[in-house]
Automatic annotation (TrEMBL):
Excises uracil residues from the DNA which can arise as a result of misincorporation of dUMP residues by DNA polymerase or due to deamination of cytosine. GO terms for molecular function: uracil DNA N-glycosylase activity. Keywords: Cytoplasm, DNA damage, DNA repair, Hydrolase. This is Uracil-DNA glycosylase. Its main location: cytoplasm. Its EC number is 3.2.2.27.
Length: 221
């Protein structure tokens, strides 16, 4: 498959695209999209990489699956298109942002503005079958996105990794903690947030403080 992805990533991940597992993954995804409804739209599967080039990465936020409801997933983890109601996890992300930075709650759930500033909004699995959470897991996407995390760790310095929830925290082993900054907390989902594991983590202000300390411009969250 000819992968439509930003050239900076295409070069860095060329070994993945040529691998046997990725060819199998490609065939699986093609068949899934041909025989049923899947998200995000095919042209947006690699949107996170197109909005945030490898050269520009300053922050990485890890999600697990794309949203599986109609019109929700737009290729960036936790993000939805303009005008789409905010899913519960995104609501809690915005509530924490509001409390942390003393900013008004955003009208739009579209996080492309974050991506444009160097925030890689990466799901571990980049596609999903409609209304079936986790339906495209263990088909090769996790191998690919682990390679993405390793590539950022190896080729960049001073990146802030935000690992929210148990699944994301397991990815810490892929990151060189001597070169980068890792912030962890509970997941913003209602189950975790309502137990006190999310609110008050102050990851938005902490991230900007770290970026400024190392001479990088802060993110306008």
């Amino acid at each position: 498959m000819k992968v439509n992805i930003h050239p900076s990533w295409k070069l860095a991940l060329s070994a993945e695209f040529e691998s046997t597992y990725f060819k199998g993954l490609t065939q699986f995804v093609k068949e899934e999209y041909a025989t049923g409804t899947c998200y995000p739209p095919g042209a947006r599967i690699f949107a996170a990489f197109d909005r945030c080039t490898l050269d520009d990465v300053k922050v990485v936020i890890l999600g697990q699956d794309p949203y599986h409801g109609q019109g929700q997933a737009n290729g960036l983890c936790f993000s939805v298109a303009d005008g789409v109601p905010h899913p519960p996890s995104l609501i809690n992300i915005f509530k924490e942002q509001q409390n942390d930075l003393n900013k008004p709650y955003p009208e739009s759930g579209n996080l492309e503005a974050w991506a444009d500033q160097g925030v890689l909004l990466l799901n571990a699995t980049l596609t999903v079958r409609a209304h079936q959470a986790g339906s495209h897991q263990k088909q090769g996407w996790e191998t690919f996105t682990d390679a993405v995390i390793k590539t950022v760790s190896e080729q960049k310095e001073g990146v802030v990794f935000l690992l929210w929830g148990g699944f994301a925290k397991k990815k810490a082993k892929l990151i060189d903690a001597q070169k980068h900054h890792i912030l962890t907390s509970g997941h913003p989902s209602p189950l975790s947030a309502n137990r006190g594991y999310w609110f008050g983590n102050r990851h938005f202000s902490q991230t900007n403080s770290i970026l400024q300390q190392i001479g990088k411009s802060p993110i306008v969250w």
